[in-house]
Specification:
18% strand; HIT family, subunit A; globular; alpha+beta; 5-stranded antiparallel β-sheet; 5 strands
Length: 141
């Protein structure tokens, strides 16, 4: 596990920095992104201090997952979008800027939202079997 250092999100959780709060319970806080990719761009963060998704406790991760559908429905209804992205960037090379776990809900519109390209590869059976066996062996760690 990496060492957690205070971030803008931990200051928002502590009430030191204001936000446009959408949802809060004992484990999760959600608010509007101040640098939105589209109208309604929402952040959902655990109150638990963790840099990366894989470092979250199971209760904190479960709390995030439990509230996401509800927030997505509300964001869709208010934004008028018909589609959206749910995105977690984990680590700087993956695009994480604030080193506190956070989930983006990004409404998609023809002229705004997350613009991406997906260059799909292929998965042969031998590689799939090897990866499946190796990943399953580490699930209980």
């Amino acid at each position: 596990m990496s060492e957690y250092q205070e971030t803008i999100f931990s200051k928002i959780i502590a009430g030191e920095i204001p936000c446009h709060k959408l949802y809060e319970d004992e484990h999760v806080l959600s608010f509007l992104d101040i640098g939105p990719l589209s109208e309604g761009h929402t952040l959902v963060i655990p109150k638990e201090n963790a840099r990366y998704l894989h470092e979250l406790s199971e209760p904190a991760a479960a709390a995030l997952g439990a509230v996401l559908p509800r927030l997505c429905r509300a964001v869709l209804k208010v934004s008028g979008a018909e589609s959206y992205n749910v995105l977690v960037n984990t680590g700087e090379p993956a695009g994480q800027v604030v080193m506190h776990v956070h989930v983006h809900i990004i409404p998609q519109f023809p002229d705004s939202g997350l613009k991406k390209s997906w260059k799909a590869g292929s998965l042969d059976d031998a590689t799939a079997q090897r990866l499946s066996k190796q990943i399953c062996a580490h699930l209980d760690e």
